[in-house]
């Protein structure tokens, strides 16, 4: 099997978790290799996601490491089955890797918590609003590039229409509701779409009003994607330099606290719908 040239974020995460499990057991790379009867380079390559790994080998390593958390081991074993890729692979080499990794993260998440300051969250954007937001890129994209990125962004929304969609909480700052990307008509249609989305059983939409004062997600937009077990949760930060993915325990705990604090100063779901309706009436 040839080595991977560009492992996905999910493949890298599996390798990272194998390394963490080994280190938690207090074993060296050589000791892990000896236990499995392979050379140490192979262990290194597995932990760096340079090569794929089978479910059987994941469970064998977990046994060598004496990992007591069966749910965690089962979740890692399940990750080895994701070899066919997903719809986002058709965009590989055509848009930035961070966008592909975000789509993959959303696809496998068991729950999503998103906080946005200036934009309506991508999963809730209408086509015309998304086109206007993407059209603000500097340097400007070619028409073909803009179409690719728009197509990718709209395709991400499909997770909300699955038979069993993940529960999603979206915290949206009032500034995002008043910034007229695309003009008045586009923004009005976006607000109406938000009101419709807020009625879905799996969606909780909360507005963070300007008069709430300071808030902890003022710097960047945050997506917290829950995994099948808490150890596999992931935070994605959307920055001017691209997507950043975090999965260290302290980072996850910090961003759970950040989102909890943002929710505490946000309007409840019912008040949010009233708030958005009022903005739409005066748009």
UniProtKB/TrEMBL annotation:
<dbReference type="Pfam" id="PF13560">
    <property type="entry name" value="HTH_31"/>
</dbReference>
<dbReference type="Pfam" id="PF19054">
    <property type="entry name" value="DUF5753"/>
</dbReference>
<dbReference type="InterPro" id="IPR043917">
    <property type="entry name" value="DUF5753"/>
</dbReference>
<dbReference type="InterPro" id="IPR001387">
    <property type="entry name" value="Cro/C1-type_HTH"/>
</dbReference>
<dbReference type="InterPro" id="IPR010982">
    <property type="entry name" value="Lambda_DNA-bd_dom_sf"/>
</dbReference>
<feature type="domain" description="HTH cro/C1-type">
    <location>
        <begin position="18"/>
        <end position="73"/>
    </location>
</feature>
<protein>
    <submittedName>
        <fullName>Helix-turn-helix domain-containing protein</fullName>
    </submittedName>
</protein>
């Amino acid at each position: 099997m040839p080595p991977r040239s560009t492992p996905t974020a999910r493949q890298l995460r599996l390798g990272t978790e194998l390394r963490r499990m080994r280190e938690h057991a207090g074993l060296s790379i050589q000791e892990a290799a000896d236990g499995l009867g392979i050379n140490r380079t192979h262990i290194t390559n597995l932990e760096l996601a340079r090569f794929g790994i089978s479910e059987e080998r994941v469970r064998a390593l977990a046994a060598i490491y004496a990992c007591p958390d069966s749910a965690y081991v089962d979740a890692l074993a399940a990750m080895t089955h994701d070899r066919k890729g997903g719809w986002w692979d058709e965009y590989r080499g055509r848009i930035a890797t961070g966008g592909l990794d975000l789509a993959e993260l959303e696809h496998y998440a068991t729950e999503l918590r998103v906080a946005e300051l200036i934009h309506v969250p991508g999963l809730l954007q209408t086509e015309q609003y998304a086109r206007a937001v993407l059209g603000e890129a500097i340097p400007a994209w070619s028409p073909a590039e803009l179409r690719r990125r728009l197509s990718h962004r709209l395709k991400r929304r499909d997770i909300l229409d699955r038979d069993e969609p993940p529960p999603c909480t979206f915290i949206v700052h009032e500034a995002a509701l008043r910034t007229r990307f695309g003009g008045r008509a586009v923004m009005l249609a976006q607000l109406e779409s938000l009101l419709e989305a807020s009625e879905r059983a799996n969606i909780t939409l909360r507005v963070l009003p300007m008069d709430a004062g300071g808030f902890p997600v003022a710097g960047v937009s945050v997506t917290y994607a829950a995994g099948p077990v808490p150890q596999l949760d992931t935070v994605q930060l959307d920055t001017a330099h691209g997507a950043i993915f975090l999965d260290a325990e302290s980072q996850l705990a910090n961003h759970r606290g950040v989102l909890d604090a943002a929710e505490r100063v946000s309007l409840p779901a019912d008040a949010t719908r009233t708030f958005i309706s009022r903005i739409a009436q005066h748009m």
